[in-house]
């Protein structure tokens, strides 16, 4: 069984859009000299009805195959239906882009979506406004046309040589929830 090390992204989940802003302290998504330039990694996603209640709709948000999400989550029912609040590991391709690791996800904007709303809701704070704005220069963050494809860079990281030497094969990004403690997070994934 592959060893997965959970990289905790310390942003408390909230409906407050301010939570999508870049933290001044927190996890380090930068690249080190002994880290690969790209790797397979995971982000943790919590199912949220009514929009994201099954494996297919969540896989589509991240642009990954339904089978890859199913394979990473053995506890998912055969029909792909999820329990509200069920955590899922989503496989992503993580790569070094400038100073940090990101996994770029193309998201089709819906009516009412903007750069503040999507990171905090559909993407559950796996990215933030600064990263999205930097990657989509020239677009107005509050006036995006429905149907536009926008790139959202998700925070991720590749294992360093020290991680690999310790048997860690993958890293997973998890956004800390206000109800979390170390014990319940370790039991979720």
List how many beta strands DSSP finds: 6
Strand portion: 25-35%
Helix content: 10-25%
Number of domains: 1
Determine the number of helices (DSSP H or I, runs of at least 4 residues).
Answer: 6
Shape designation: globular
Uncertain residue ranges: 8-24
Order of helices and strands: EEHHEEHHEHEH
Radius of gyration in whole Å, from Cα? 16 Å
Chain oligomer state? single chain
Q: Outline the biggest β-sheet.
A: 6 strands, mixed
Structural class: alpha/beta
Q: Give the termini separation.
A: 14 Å
InterPro entries: LysM, NFP_LYK_LysM1, NFP_LysM2, Plant_RLK_LysM
Keywords: Signal
Protein name: LysM domain-containing protein
Pfam families: LysM1_NFP_LYK, LysM2_NFP
Question: How would you summarize what this structure contains?
Answer:
This protein has six helices and six strands, in the order ββααββααβαβα.
Descriptive notes:
Residues 1-20 form the signal peptide. This protein has helices at 55-62, 66-72, 117-120, 129-135, 161-165, 182-188, and strands at residues 3-9, 38-46, 87-97, 100-108, 149-155, 168-175. It has 189 residues and is an alpha/beta fold. The chain has one domain. It has a six-stranded mixed sheet. A hairpin with a 2-residue loop joins β3 and β4 (100-108). The model is unreliable at 8-24 (pLDDT under 50).
